[in-house]
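Structure tokens please, single chain.
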Amino acid sequence: MRLFGTREALPRGGSMPAPSEVTLVVGEPWYFDPANYTETGKDLYRKISEDLMAQIAALQL
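Here you go.
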């Protein structure tokens, strides 16, 4: 899932939300497959996070 329009709704440093359109985009489910990873420990967590963030970044309006 990814939200668009949140900066307009509550700008950085703002104290009150402003009326604004916020859109939620829901992508395809992402499933963890251990066979895709050779990393262990913190490196594994980092790699999974990077892969998941890339999936979120790819979502468009």
